[in-house]
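The data layer described in this paper is built around a simple, fixed record for each protein. We quote a single record here, exactly as it is kept in our systems:
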Amino acid sequence: MVKNRPKMRKDIAKTATLLVAGVIMMTSPFIASTVLASEQTPEYELDNVVVTATKTQKSLRDVSSSVSVITREMIVQSTAKNVAELVTMLPGVALESRGGLGGINGISLRGLNGGPGSQKLLLLMDGRPANFSYDGSINWNTIPLDAVEKVEVIRGPGSALYGANALGGVINVIMKKPQGSSLTTSAKFGSFNTSAESMIYENGNDKTGIRVTAGQEETDGHRANGDYDGQNYTLLLTQKIGEDATWSLRSGYTKTDRGISGSKSSPGNYYRDRGEYVYGDLEYKQQSENLNNTIRIYQSDSKTESTKTASSVLSSKMEDSLLGVMLQQDFRVNPKQTVTWGADYQRHTADELLKAESYSADVAAIYVQNDQKLSDTVNLTLGARFDHHSVFGSQASPKLGLNYAPSQDVLWKINVAKSFKAPSLADLYSTSSSALGNRDLKPTEMWSYELGFEKQLDPESFISVVLYKSDAKNMIINERQSDGTRQKKNVGNIKPQGVEFEFKHKENANIDWFFNYTYLDVGDMTYLAARHKGNLGIAYYNQALKVSLAQQFVGKSYGKDYSQNPIDGYSVTNLKTTYSPGKSCTVELAVENLFDKQYEIYSGYPMPERNYTGTVTWKF
């Protein structure tokens, strides 16, 4: 057990008290009257529309969950190579990485570590579940950033609508809709013999749309045996039928070949990882004034083969498949009340080819949500989902959300929800000595409680604070055995709690900046969870030039608990400059790790030194 837990609780109590005191001061009549007296027209952050939190289009003013939105403009200004690196600049989100293009990346939401596979969060692509069927992992390189319109991130439980995998939260990547006719090509060159080429063709109008993307990227990597070669292709077809119905067909194919470097202490312990991933997604939507209907059928298949050099670790060859059906209906009872209900079915299958073993599981679910404005200032959301798993039986996931907006520029939020994580097929049956399966595992269950505050301080400034506390039981972890292998195991009560603070400000017509800070206490379950994390970003732009600078600070983290295997904190700076001499051409220069810091996120795996990337984009 951790000896300094009382001190940690005092720390978080002190931090929370100071932040709450600050936001109460910000809502004082004097400041409120100053904001309302402004002659400028406010562009309220609270009026942003999101879809992930409620599965319907909602203003952030009516959403009780903690939601962050990464816009297309923010994507362009970022030096991120994939969505995993992109979202790590948000509060409450941490990157678990061994570094480099094609390297193993994972995302931790509020300290709920999923390892490199990020099994404790749900990834959606335009609303389609995109985690791999076998182990719930995510290949972040399957998402072409050039075609992403925005990313919505729910921090906190999402099982009331989305079921398993949404234990820590949900990331929904929303792709661009075809508009007009254009062909965009880009070429990228950088350090470590890195190169990439991509193409996006789109043609769309009010009735039909098509978008095709193709991309290829390769690198030698910043360490020996860290090379990567990947290709990615996607297709979107849309067809409007009549006045209120639309068909959409989405598909994609990814092929990767990468080397995974060993640690500094065991450089010969590396392996080669090859994979193919293909998906298809057919969606029908009918939208009218008071009734929306959605039917969706999707399937994804993947093949992975790992050849490892260490004799103690077995090679593997896997094929897995996910077949899903989603039905949803949104019924507008009256102007102040909307009822959403739906049903989901998923069939998970996996074949371990080297051992000639096959596994499967079926999940069926129904859910309902009532979203209602009780008054002009109060919005109530009540929801629940019931999942039946063919291996573990049934799970219920209720949710209560309450929003109170005493004025146009102030919002208070309360959120109480239960979430769960059913063991994946890999958790149960894996024979890999790096993570042996355990057929006696139980599902993880977690209750979470949130108090949030958001305020538009003036037309140019926005602030938010979230305090949360969770109570989880039967968390699934990899525990090291006496023979050096690791095995999946349930552990006792884990109680993550923390504070998330965010401030955004537009200095003038050409400069804006943001700052966010996360305080995280995950109790004894501290694997790769830093107590302190901060992000600072500033951007300058005019018609032709954009310059953005991002600074991230991550405090000390630990391999097991607060007394073992410390990993030093770090601070890293990234710079990106974009110049557009005309409407059809853009030139970019990105510098990562600007001050050439030596640091590690995952113990024993150094991150890349200062490196450069240049990109030229043409649009026809």
